[in-house]
TrEMBL record:
One of its GO terms (cellular component) is cytoskeleton. Pfam families: Ubiquitin_2 (PF14560). Keywords: Coiled coil, Cytoplasm, Cytoskeleton, Leucine-rich repeat, Phosphoprotein, Repeat. Acts as a regulator of tubulin stability. InterPro entries: Leu-rich_rpt, LRR_dom_sf, TBCEL_Ubl, Ubiquitin-like_dom, Ubiquitin-like_domsf. It comes from the Eukaryota. Residues 346-421 form the Ubiquitin-like domain. The keyword Ribonucleoprotein does not apply. This is Leucine-rich repeat-containing protein 51. It is found in: Cytoplasm, Cytoskeleton. Its main location: cytoplasm. Coiled coil: none annotated. The keyword Repeat applies.
Amino acid sequence: MDQPSGRSFMQVLCEKYSPENFPYRRGPGMGVHVPATPQGSPMKDRLNLPSVLVLNSCGITCAGDENEIAAFCAHVSELDLSDNKLEDWHEVSKIVSNVPHLEFLNLSSNPLSLSVLERRCAGSFAGVRKLVLNNSKASWETVHTILQELPDLEELFLCLNDYETVSCSPVCCQSLKLLHITDNNLQDWTEIRKLGIMFPSLDTLILANNNLTTIEESEDSLARLFPNLRSINLHKSAGLHCWEDIDKLNSFPKLEEVKLLGIPLLQSYTTEERRKLLIARLPSIVKLNGSIVADGEREDSERFFIRYYMEFPEEEVPFRYHELVTKYGKLEPLAVVDLRPQSSVKVEIHFQDKVEEMSIRLDQTVAELKKHLKTVVQLSTSNMLLFYLDQEAPFGPEEMKYSSRALHSYGIRDGDKIYVEPRMK
């Protein structure tokens, strides 16, 4: 249902958190009591505001009375204003400047690209530590202004903003730890390296759904660009087409978590092969695609890696293979063991003084075997007795007296003997 246009932050706040819609809850930090105000004010006698305000998809276009915002929101720490109609940064500034303890701000899916963010407005965001600008189409100039005015910013979300390039900020942001920049169109690695220059303290870089191409960077340069990177997400980076791109991730000195799903390079391998080959190539990671890499799994993967490449031509063997051979030595190929049950065996059929070797199916019954032997021993099935001799059995032949019993239940193996005798009248 469409919300009415032209609604203010204060109007929506009063409606949503009125006593009728949001009952008062007692206890420290649970809400705030606002006394009665002069007639004509949009405020109720009291509102019960939590410290986390969610006002998404409410049709908000402006701030409303700033004094009332300050009276209500002095204790608020998180504010979700996503999917509203805020298009003027001045109106956003009026709201944020009156929320002194704000640490998390979500402005996703507001048409804020329609106005310019001035530095004096951005200054009102100074205490924010987590800022979400997904699908806001915020320009890099806007991002740079924010970075200069938010000295404590730790997490920045810039997804779905149609970025094809990255514009370097004139000032490095030393505080940023997490950058979430998925679902853009950052294909060339030269754009990604700019992120390393801007955010030297980056701990987590989420680049999923960017169609990233090959990592064209030397190992030394990668280490300098991302010296503190601990986690990287490269899901659906369609341009990563060779194992050398994966190997370059080892250049990040602190990297320990990698996400690599939907990579064309890996599609020809089974799920088990993909995981083992990646673990073996990335010796420092402790988590792959969200799953912990246990010590036992690492050793199994590294041994698998050796056996996988041992038959490859020397020029196709990766350097990691030689490192692992130094660690474990040259391994013998694993024996191929077929665990499927036998479907047939070769046995000796003894009748009178004749011996004939036959292949018999183990899924048939004793009665079916007798029918099969009729032409061999020239006896009718009703006049035929069968005795099975296990070559390792200590008790002699066992009569096969139950016509409906399956042959596999006797444990018959190659080389065993079946004796046929006529029934005595």
